[in-house]
């Protein structure tokens, strides 16, 4: 199925299933652009875990963070709805006794034990849940299964910066394309779902979840994607150090394609 047909699928899970037959998340996070996001996210994860931690990874994709965590924590439970992504995750997870991987979605969190996890990762759902009720439900469930005083990390795609990076890298006329609703100054939420910083912030705070930090997880990496790939190793490593020292500055939040909300759970 091509992207034009995928965009027309209204059911979020069915659209997600078809999308990841085409979209290679594994490849994205191996690029230097993706590496910036991954390293930034891993640094935040490392600050919140220890060898006794129990972690839930919702929307685990091909297991980038699940596998990273397996050697660092007591156990990892991973939910991934896309069959293609799950098959890759399952293959990777077979060498780790402390990984429980399920071909399930954020709609299945109600089956998990209350007050059980020290850290909950919500890295996929907000990219794909087009219904507001479903987004509220996943946050409620994350709050329920996370321990009091535990942490919840939530990732969003930043609406306004996507318009800029798409204009630079892919479609110079995106503002006159079918993907853009000029009357609303909004992208359509297909195949991904997009949020402004304040929209994401309000969503989390309305569920009584405390936001500790908001991080520009990939910063300027998307608009610099071509340049990052052409940099020498020394230049890229220096850029990465620069990014890590600036990604928590408020002024970078409008310039990143991906936002990471570091939250503390309170019952």
From TrEMBL:
Pfam families the record matches: Methyltransf_25
The Methyltransferase domain, residue ranges: 55-150
Alphabetic keyword roster: Methyltransferase, Transferase
Gene Ontology process terms (BP): methylation
Entry superkingdom: Bacteria
GO molecular function: methyltransferase activity
SUPFAM superfamilies, alphabetized: S-adenosyl-L-methionine-dependent methyltransferases
Entry keyword annotation includes Transcription regulation: no
Name of the protein this chain belongs to: Class I SAM-dependent methyltransferase
